[in-house]
Design goal:
This protein has 14 helices and two strands; from the N terminus they run ββαααααααααααααα. It is an all-alpha fold and 355 residues long. It has two domains: 1-30 and 204-355, M75 peptidase, HXXE motif (A middle domain of Talin 1, Up-down Bundle), CATH 1.20.1420.20; 35-203, A middle domain of Talin 1. The protein has a two-stranded antiparallel sheet. Helix 10 packs antiparallel against helix 14 and helix 11 (251-267) packs antiparallel against helix 13. The two termini are 37 Å apart.
């Protein structure tokens, strides 16, 4: 028989503070220990293992390109970069003291890249502090996007930056960007793995995971990938803020990867014995579960209908971007309002959505 536990309210970044005035409701009793086992074993650990493996491949491709810059090696490096960028997408839903202290997500994916003065920054990269918050938007995957696609109009022009007069600086900057992604990820994943048993045994981590999951969907998927490029908040579309700006044909694919992971985290993998969806069904909330699944499907269909190039989509028919945003927002509302009411979870992150 599963161990039934009440969900204790912890902060969304795995801190161990609790508000004694906040009491769980009568219907938020669910098997959070088994849920946490599934989250750790089916999501957290395999996703970081995949990302770390792809980063090792990226390191190897980078080394080969630095040693012998050529169009063929550039293409191999691009392939490794894209593979790693895709496997990074699920990582954004995890937060901890370590990720916060390292500014992990923004150091890896603060897009768009700060282009003003970027040449001087690259030529002077050895004297720059990459840990400074002011340099978050000069590193990570957006920097690789620029180096591998944005330096020239064709492959030969791009390769020339790594063979010409400033080749040492461009190679050094490339090396620094890749190494920093790898080093920061190693620190974050090691921390999560070392605390895996602790996470499994503390029911309050279920609340933390849920909060960072919903916040990830709202801010790092919906807002970052759609709202800001489409100009949702200020009415001024900014197509230059899309992810993968210099290789925009991959922008929708990255959105799909991130959104599919959000859906998978709700449904659970094929091996999951418990998930948020299954918890609702166990609690007799089949109707709410069906609503969430339908909202996911409608949002997924809206995303699929977008142009592969989201920059072009914003520039030519931005209404479809905004309509897609509304479909995703339906999922956000269900997760942030309806589910938390049933599960007795308290949303602890700050937003300005008015949900």
């Amino acid at each position: 028989m599963f161990k039934k536990v009440f969900l204790v309210l912890f902060s969304s970044v795995f801190l161990f503070g609790c508000d004694d005035d906040l009491k769980p409701g009568d219907n938020n009793v669910f098997d959070s220990i088994t849920l946490l086992d599934n989250i750790v074993d089916q999501h957290l650990i395999p996703e970081f293992e995949k990302f770390n493996a792809d980063l090792k491949a990226l390191e190897l491709s980078k080394t080969t390109f630095v040693e012998e810059p050529s169009s063929d090696n550039l293409q191999d490096l691009r392939n490794a970069y894209l593979t790693a960028y895709f496997s990074f997408q699920p990582i954004g839903k995890y937060e901890s003291n370590v990720t916060e202290n390292l500014n992990y997500y923004l150091n890896l994916n603060a897009h768009p890249l700060a282009l003003s003065g970027i040449t001087e920054f690259i030529l002077n990269y050895e004297n720059e502090n990459f840990a400074s918050i002011q340099n978050q938007d000069r590193q990570g995957f957006p920097a690789l996007d620029y180096l591998l696609y944005g330096l020239g109009d064709n492959d030969e022009a791009i390769v020339s930056f790594f063979t010409g007069a400033n080749a040492v600086s461009y190679k050094g900057y490339l090396d620094q960007v890749v190494s920093r992604i790898t080093t920061l990820t190693a620190a974050v994943s090691t921390d999560f793995v070392n605390r895996a048993d602790q996470i499994r045994d503390e029911s309050g981590f279920a609340n933390s995971f849920y909060n960072t999951y919903v916040e990830h969907l709202e801010k790092r998927v919906r807002s970052s990938k759609i709202d800001f490029p489409a100009g949702k908040f200020d009415g001024s579309p900014s197509p230059e803020t899309i992810e993968s700006l210099f290789n925009p044909s991959q922008s929708k694919a990255l959105l799909i990867e991130a959104f599919d992971d959000v859906q998978l985290f709700y449904l659970g993998t094929e091996e999951s014995t418990l998930s948020w969806s299954k918890i609702l069904i166990e609690l007799g909330e089949d109707g709410l579960d069906a609503k969430v699944k339908l909202a996911f499907l409608e949002a997924e269909n809206a995303i699929e209908a977008l142009d592969d190039n989201l920059k072009l989509q914003v520039e030519t028919e931005n209404a479809k971007m905004l309509a897609t945003r509304d479909k995703i927002q339906k999922v956000v509302t269900l997760l942030k309002v309806d589910l938390v009411s049933v599960l007795g979870i308290s949303i602890t992150f700050i937003d300005n959505d008015g949900d």
